[in-house]
C-alpha cells in the first residue's frame, strides 16, 4: 500500500510559480511511476506529467511542456511538480498518483494510488 499526500498548492498571479509536493508512505514508493493529473471545474481530470520509477523518463502534456517539470527524490519518498509561467487555465485541483510503470502513463487507469488533491488557482 502507498498513501499519497499533496501539498504546495495555493493562489498565484499569472506568470508566477508554484512547486507541488507529493509525499508517499510505504517503502515501495521507489518501485512506482508517479503521475500528476488535474481537474478544473466542470471538466474531466486530465494528465499533466509522469515520471518513471527511477526518474529516467519524464513525460508531459503538450499544454504544460516547457513550463512544468516533474521530478522525484526516492530517498525522501517524495515527488514534485515545479510549475512556472502559470496561466489562468492551469487553475485546477492537482492530484498525484502512483502505479506500475506503463506505456499508457497518461491514463488514469494505470495508477492504483491517489492523493486527495491540492488546489491551484491562477489569477489573471
How are the SSEs ordered, and which strands pair?
Elements: E1 3-7, E2 10-13, E3 18-25, E4 33-39, E5 46-51, E6 58-60, E7 68-73, E8 78-83, E9 92-99, E10 113-114, E11 118-123
Parallel strand pairs: 2-11
Antiparallel strand pairs: 1-3, 3-8, 4-5, 4-9, 5-6, 7-8, 9-10, 9-11
Throw out a few tags for this protein:
single chain, 124 residues, mainly beta, four-stranded antiparallel sheet, 11 strands
Descriptive notes:
0% of the residues lie in helices and 49% in strands. The strands form 2 sheets. Strands 2, 4, 5, 6, 9, 10 and 11 form a 7-stranded mixed β-sheet that branches. It has a 4-stranded antiparallel β-sheet with strand order 1-3-8-7, with no helix packed on it. The mean pLDDT is 96. A hairpin with a 6-residue loop joins strand 5 (46-51) and strand 6 (58-60). The chain has strands at 3-7, 10-13, 18-25, 33-39, 46-51, 58-60, 68-73, 78-83, 92-99, 113-114, 118-123. It has no helices and 11 strands. By secondary structure, the chain is mainly beta. It is globular.
State the helicity in percent bands.
under 10%
Q: Which sequence of SSEs, written as H and E, runs from N to C?
A: EEEEEEEEEEE
Compute the separation of the termini in Å.
40 Å
Mean pLDDT: 96
How large a portion of the residues is in β-strands, by DSSP E?
over 45%
Query: Unreliable segments (pLDDT under 50, ≥5 consecutive)?
Result: none
| Main β-sheet description | 7 strands, mixed
Structural class: mainly beta
How many β-strand runs?
Answer: 11
Count of individual helical segments? 0
Give the overall silhouette.
globular
Rg calc:
13 Å
